């Protein structure tokens, strides 16, 4: 299993909304690197949900429930072949893990969230995932 982080402004689509919806197509990604990450996500991969802009924190978990398929939000004449995946809601973290906490810990020094901060989809190493779960108050 691989681990990923997806970012969304909570005003646009929050983790709470994903929980209400139970699942969603993760559409609208228009960055080639992020698109390529979507294309290698596998069913069952763990996904950390990050609220960008206002909260700047990892707030919940989701799972990839459908692998990459053509993004239905592509508009006529739009350049690029864009993909999306389906995410299934998981559980909220008991404690949000803030960007400040992540920046302060050397164990996260190579995390894509810090090195490529503009990407809306990025990989998370197994060690980073375990630490995020621990800091978020999740066991198992």
Describe this structure in words.
26% of the residues lie in helices and 36% in strands. It contains 5 helices and 6 strands. The chain is globular and about 45 Å long. It has 140 residues and is of the alpha+beta class. A 6-stranded mixed β-sheet has the order 2-5-4-3-1-6. The model has no long low-confidence stretch (mean pLDDT 96). The protein has one domain (3-127): Roll (ph1033 like fold), CATH 3.10.590.
Topology (SSEs and partners):
Blueprint: E1 3-8, H1 15-21, E2 23-26, H2 32-40, E3 46-51, E4 57-70, E5 83-98, H3 99-104, H4 112-115, E6 121-124, H5 126-135
Percent of residues in helical segments?
25-40%
Instruction: Give the name of the CATH architecture.
Output: Roll
Structural class determined from secondary elements: alpha+beta
Strand order of the largest sheet: 2-5-4-3-1-6
- Rounded to the nearest angstrom, the radius of gyration is 14 Å
Concise synopsis of the structure shown:
The protein is of the alpha+beta class and 140 residues long. The protein contains five helices and six strands, in the order βαβαβββααβα.
What key phrases describe this protein's structure?
140 residues; alpha+beta; ph1033 like fold; six-stranded mixed beta sheet; 6 strands
């Amino acid at each position: 299993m691989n681990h990923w982080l997806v970012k969304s402004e909570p005003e646009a689509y929050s983790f709470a909304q994903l929980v209400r919806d139970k699942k969603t197509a993760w559409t609208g990604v228009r960055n080639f690197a992020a698109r390529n990450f979507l294309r290698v996500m596998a069913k069952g991969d763990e996904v950390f949900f990050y609220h960008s802009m206002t909260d700047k924190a990892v707030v919940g978990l989701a799972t990839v429930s459908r692998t990459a398929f053509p993004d239905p939000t592509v508009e006529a004449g739009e350049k690029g072949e864009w993909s999306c995946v389906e995410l299934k809601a998981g559980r909220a973290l008991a404690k949000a893990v803030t960007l400040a906490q992540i920046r302060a810990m050397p164990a996260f020094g190579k995390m894509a969230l810090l090195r490529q901060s503009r990407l809306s989809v990025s990989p998370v190493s197994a060690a980073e995932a375990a630490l995020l779960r621990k800091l978020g108050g999740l066991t198992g």
